[in-house]
Amino acid sequence: MGGRTREGHRGTGPGAITPDGCAVDLYSRLVAGAEPGIVAAAVPARATLLELGSGAGRMTRPLADHGLVVTAVDESAEMLARVRERVPGIRTVQSPIETLDLEERFDVVLLASFLVHTADLRVRDGLLAACRRHVEDDGCVLIQREGLDWHTRVPRERVDPSGCTVRIASAEPVGDGVNAVVAEYVFPDARWTQTFRSRPLTKEEFEGSLDRAGLAVETYLTDDGTWVRARPKDR
């Protein structure tokens, strides 16, 4: 399997596991909840949208169903194959996000799945630079953040719309402001785990990262501040 092994990331369970610990079969089963509706309500109808880190297409299908013209980007060929199964005819691009350069701009760039909380500061700057590089000057970037208590309200669990019980079992400090997070995903017939590293960000740290990338918060889309719409600063 292609991709770069990431320190502190691993996964267990049936099927292929990507270098960052994501199980392809698991993510193919998971479905989106309210997120696609939040995105669709925050952007123009029929907008072109660059989905960075699409995974197996959990959000891709409903975003396309909302009328958005989606290009899905992921580092995993196995994940993108599942995207194409879910959304026949969709354009997909296999690439690390932080080095992506399609030499084109989109009305909307989407960075979901808490990717902005990557433990690696250089990678985070690269992710946000890719967002700015690919958004139209009058476009917007939508970013999903962790909640304020995401690392402290553990253990906790919820039931995914797919019927999977998602459990955040622990979030333990490993130094330099980073936590090692253990997540469990339990279906009646299968179980997966994923261990990954995440860096909590204050509002000031988050907005400072955007500023360095040439972006600025326009509005927080949800009351808990987990969904943000940003605009290019120099538009």
Topology:
Blueprint: E1 10-12, H1 24-29, H2 35-41, E2 48-52, H3 60-65, E3 69-74, H4 77-86, E4 91-94, E5 106-111, H5 121-134, E6 135-144, E7 156-159, E8 165-175, E9 178-187, E10 190-198, H6 203-212, E11 215-220, E12 227-232
Parallel strand pairs: 2-3, 2-5, 3-4, 5-6
Antiparallel strand pairs: 1-10, 6-12, 7-8, 8-9, 9-10, 11-12
Structure described in brief:
The protein is an alpha/beta fold.
The Cα radius of gyration reads 17 Å
Number of distinct beta strands:
12
What is the CATH topology descriptor of the domain at 33-147 and 201-232?
Rossmann fold
Quick one: overall form?
A: globular
Going by CATH, the homologous superfamily of the domain at 33-147 and 201-232 would be: Vaccinia Virus protein VP39
Main β-sheet, spatial strand arrangement: 4-3-2-5-6-12-11
Helix content: 10-25%
Roughly how many Å apart are the termini? Answer: 40 Å
Order of helices and strands: EHHEHEHEEHEEEEEHEE
Task: Tell me about this structure.
The chain is an alpha/beta fold. It has a domain at 33-147 and 201-232: Rossmann fold, CATH 3.40.50.150. Helices cover 23% and strands 34% of the residues. The protein has six helices and twelve strands. It has helices at 24-29, 35-41, 60-65, 77-86, 121-134, 203-212, and strands at residues 10-12, 48-52, 69-74, 91-94, 106-111, 135-144, 156-159, 165-175, 178-187, 190-198, 215-220, 227-232. A seven-stranded mixed beta sheet has the order 4-3-2-5-6-12-11, with helices on both faces. Strands 1-10-9-8-7 form a five-stranded antiparallel beta sheet, with no helix packed on it. The longest helix is centred in the middle third of the chain and has 14 residues, at 121-134. The protein is globular. It starts with 9 loop residues before the first strand and ends with a strand.
